[in-house]
Each structure stands twice: as C-alpha cells, then as structure tokens.
Design a protein that fits this description.
This protein is an alpha/beta fold. The protein contains ten helices and ten strands.
C-alpha cells in the first residue's frame, strides 16, 4: 500500500511516498531556512507564501522519485495539526483538492504522531508498546505509545519547549538561526560544567518539564557578564545549557519508563538530533537494559516520510477525513 504524505506545518514544504508504513520510496523537502535566517526565526506569513509556491512541484517530484503516478497512490496523508495555522492550511487544502479530484482517500495526521513514526522507517523492527520522548522547537512530551494509533500523555512542558529554550540560548550568545543546531555544534568544544544551571521541578508532576527558568538564567548570565565587561564563551554556555536541558529530559523519561514498566524508549522530534541527548540516553538505556530507538538524523526534522508512515497506520485503523477537514494550530496527540 502506497501512501503519499504531505507536510507543511512550519517552514519545510515536504512530500513523500512510503510503502506499507515502512519503506520510503521518495522524500522531498523544500527548506526555507536560508530565507528565515535573516529574521532570526520563522516568519509565519513568509512561510505560508513559500509553501504555496513550492507545494505543487514538491508533490510532483515525490511521485516522480518514487517512480509512480497519483493513480498508484492508495491514500493521501496530510499534517493538519499542530503547527503554524497559515502553513498548515496550504498543505491541508492542497491535499483536500487532490483527494477530491482523484477520489483517493484523505487521511489526517497529527504532527507529533508523525515524529514518532519517523522511527518506523528508521528501524523496521520497532513496534509498540513503548515510551517516546518527543522534543522539538514547539513541543516537549513523554508519551506512552500503547499502539500505532493509541497514545497517552505522561508528561509535558508547562511553559517553553526544549527546542525553543535552546534557540533562545543560542540567540543570547549571538549564534544564527537555526539556534539549537548551531548551539549543539559549538558546544562540542565547550565545558559543560562551566556554568551551573538550576534544576527546575514541577510541584504536582514528576514527569512534567519547565524550561523557562533555564532560558532566563542564560539570558541573565550573559547580561550580567556584559555589564561587568566580561565575555561569555558560546561554547561553554552552550555545553552547560544543553547539559541542563538534556539531563532534565533524560531523568524524567527514565522515571516514566520505570513507573510504566516499559522496555523500549523512542526518541522523536527535531531535538532528538542533539548529540548529547542521543549519547546520554544511549548510556542510560544501556545501563538499565532498555532498548533505545533513535530516528535517522535525516528524519529528525520535519519531513513527509514520517507523515506518510503514520498515515498508513491511521488509514488501516479506519481513520479518514472528508472535505470539511480543517487545519488546527494546537491539538493534543491524544485527539481522536
């Protein structure tokens, strides 16, 4: 069964064809990073316009690269939530038009479910149940994945997402967009014990996260040093900041795994590409006898292959949409 996936939730216009939820036949991405870099972050209006300009050619190339036509496609899977509303609308409306004109079933896919599914195309042996740590620029969740379409939220951030906090720390020390990626690169040569960050705790939940305090601590640290005529090395602050964030992510996830009796941990989302997070999680899982699954780096960021993969499981579970499907900016992964 071939699924055409369409993704446009932020600043990547993407399309892919995936067979039986696991085999990637094509994966095309039109990135806007260079254009948004001059603004220091994604400008929603610009992102929406670029999606409109790119989506036709991206879908056509995805079909061509997969050596098939639209008539070979069994279902069209599209990200409809969550994300930038204007950006989402481009993908959703294109998918609806394509479905209407061809009669091919339309399958709505939640963006975070897609990130988890990136692991299905990275490792064909992976099957639920498992606990997944989903971390990106907009989301930080610990999810109990009971089945391919059955999710339970264990923990989540109460304020900023981990990726958002990393981006802010990167901007604070003058690193360009995309901040988290560049912070990871410079931190390789930094001293992660140079600055001692606080350990945020959420009083009523041992699984929930809070990253806003870490972000504020970094800003104040740089500001106070500047007032004294001192310089904060980006490598040292980056390494110390990433240590604080990743230690929090790992400790809470390991706590959830212990309490829920899970035997597998799955990393997902853009921040799952962070080198220290992958390394420390690998070490912890090895010491506890837990199997760790990590998406290939090319599938960590937003892409349509992950949407097509999850779309396959949604479709086989009977989930379809009609032409009333709309984009939704914010929606929990547990939506029906």
């Amino acid at each position: 069964m071939k699924i055409l996936g369409i993704e446009s939730s932020c600043d990547e216009t993407a399309a892919a064809v995936v067979e039986d939820g696991r085999k990637v036949l094509s994966n095309v991405i039109a990135s806007q990073v260079e254009e948004h870099k001059i603004y220091g972050g994604v400008v929603p209006e610009i992102a929406s316009r670029r999606h409109t300009e790119a989506i036709c050619s991206v879908v056509e190339k995805a079909l061509s690269d997969a050596d098939c036509t639209i008539n070979d496609i069994d279902a069209i899977a599209v990200t409809y939530a969550p994300g930038l509303i204007g950006a989402l609308l481009v993908g959703v409306n294109y998918a609806k038009g394509l479905s209407y004109s061809t009669g091919i079933p339309l399958v709505p896919v939640h963006h975070l479910r897609g990130h988890i599914a990136a692991n299905y195309i990275s490792d064909e042996a992976l099957k639920p149940p498992f606990v997944s740590l989903v971390v990106s620029g907009g989301h930080s969740h610990i999810i109990n994945v009971k089945d391919y379409t059955d999710f339970e939220i264990i923990g989540r951030t109460r304020d900023d997402a981990a990726g958002e906090a990393m981006d802010k720390a990167a901007r604070t020390v003058g690193l360009p967009y995309p901040g988290g990626v560049n912070l990871d690169k410079v931190s390789v040569n930094g001293d992660e014990n140079k600055y001692k960050f606080p350990v945020p705790k959420v009083a009523d939940s041992k699984y929930d996260f809070s990253f806003s305090g870490l972000k504020t601590f970094a800003v104040n640290l740089v500001h106070n040093a500047s007032q004294k005529g001192e310089t904060v090395k980006a490598a040292d602050l980056g390494a110390s900041f990433i240590k604080a964030v990743t230690d929090l992510l790992v400790s809470h996830t390991m706590e959830a795994v212990k309490d829920f009796g899970a035997e597998k941990i799955v990393l997902a989302g853009g921040v799952s590409a962070n080198s220290r997070l992958r390394r420390i999680m690998e070490e912890k899982c090895k010491s506890k006898g837990i199997k760790l699954y990590k998406p290939e780096l090319k599938y960590c960021g937003d892409n349509a292959a992950m949407i097509a993969s999850q779309g396959y499981y949604e479709f086989t579970a009977g989930k379809k949409a009609d032409l009333t499907l709309n984009a939704v900016a914010s929606m929990p992964i547990t939506e029906l």
